[in-house]
Design goal:
mainly alpha; globular; about 85% helix; 9 helices; about 260 residues
Length: about 260
C-alpha cells in the first residue's frame, strides 16, 4: 500500500516535470542545430540569440519550478481541500511527510540530471567528453595529491551525502512552515510568516552557537587537510540532520494534532 502512495506522488510530480524536461531538451537541440549552421544573416542571428536566451531561462527556471512544484503539491494535497481525501487514506501524517520529502528530493536530483543532459545535447561531441574526462581526471589527481591517495572517493561520497541532507532540510523547512501556517486564518500568509520566522530563528541560533564555540572552527582549520575536511563535512551533516529531524517533528505534530482544513 505504501508503494502506491509513492507511485501517486511521483506521477503527480513528473506529470508536470517530464514535459518541462522535454521542452528543455527540444530547446537545447535547437541551439545545437543552429550552432552548426554557418549563416551571416541578421534574422538568423536574432533567432539563434533568442533560442539561446530561452534555453538559458528554461534551464534556470526549471530548477526553481521543480522546487515550487514540490511545495505547491504538499500544500494542495495535505492542507487544501484535497486534504480531506488525503487524510482519509490509511496513512499517518508522518508517512505523507516522508513520502513528499523523499519524492521532492528525487525530483530535484532528476532535474539536475536533466540540466546536465541539456548541456550534453548543446555541447556534446568527442571534444566535449574528452575535455570533461581531462577535467575530472585533473580534479581527482589534484585532490589525491592534496588529501592523500584513495581518499578523494570518500570525500566525494561525503559531499553527496551532505548535499542530500541539506536538500532534505530545505524541503522540510517549507513543510514545517506550511504546517504551522495553516493555523492562521490566511494560510498562505501564515506559511510565509512562519517560514521567515523559522529562518531567522535558525540563523540566530547558528550565530550564537558559532560565537560561543569558536574552538570548533579553530579545530577544523588547524587540522591536517584530510582531517579538516572530515570535520567540516561532519559539522555540515550534523547541522543539516538536526534541522531535518526538527522540521519533520514540527510538521508531523501540526498535521497530526493541529490539522485545520477549514
Amino acid at each position: 500500500m505504501l508503494k502506491k502512495l509513492y507511485k501517486h506522488e511521483f506521477i503527480g510530480l513528473y506529470r508536470v516535470l517530464l514535459p518541462l524536461y522535454g521542452l528543455l531538451f527540444a530547446l537545447s537541440g535547437a541551439v545545437r542545430l543552429l550552432s552548426m549552421i554557418d549563416v551571416n544573416n541578421k534574422v538568423y542571428d536574432y533567432i539563434n540569440g533568442l533560442t539561446v536566451g530561452l534555453t538559458g531561462i528554461m534551464a534556470v527556471g526549471l530548477m526553481f519550478a521543480s522546487f515550487v512544484l514540490v511545495i505547491v503539491n504538499f500544500y494542495k494535497s495535505l492542507l487544501g481541500k484535497q486534504g480531506y481525501l488525503t487524510f482519509s487514506l490509511p496513512f499517518k501524517a508522518h508517512s505523507h511527510i516522508i513520502c513528499k520529502a523523499v519524492c521532492g528530493a528525487v525530483a530535484a536530483v532528476t532535474t539536475i540530471i536533466a540540466e546536465f543532459i541539456a548541456l550534453v545535447i548543446i555541447f556534446g561531441g568527442y571534444d566535449f567528453f574528452k575535455e570533461l574526462h581531462i577535467f575530472f581526471k585533473t580534479v581527482f589527481k589534484t585532490a589525491n595529491d592534496y588529501f592523500g591517495t584513495g581518499k578523494t572517493t570518500l570525500i566525494c561520497t561525503e559531499v553527496v551525502i551532505c548535499a542530500l541532507a541539506v536538500l532534505l532540510s530545505n524541503i522540510l523547512m517549507f513543510f514545517a512552515a506550511m504546517a504551522i501556517g495553516q493555523q492562521f486564518k490566511n494560510k498562505v500568509l501564515g506559511a510565509i510568516l512562519s517560514y521567515f520566522g523559522i529562518y531567522f530563528a535558525i540563523q540566530t541560533v547558528m550565530t550564537v552557537i558559532m560565537s560561543l564555540v569558536p574552538r570548533i572552527l579553530d579545530g577544523i582549520m588547524n587540522s591536517a587537510p584530510f582531517a579538516a575536511t572530515q570535520k567540516y563535512f561532519a559539522l555540515i551533516f550534523v547541522i543539516a540532520a538536526i534541522q531535518v529531524i526538527g522540521y519533520y517533528l514540527v510538521a508531523n505534530y501540526f498535521l497530526s494534532n493541529k490539522l485545520n482544513l477549514e
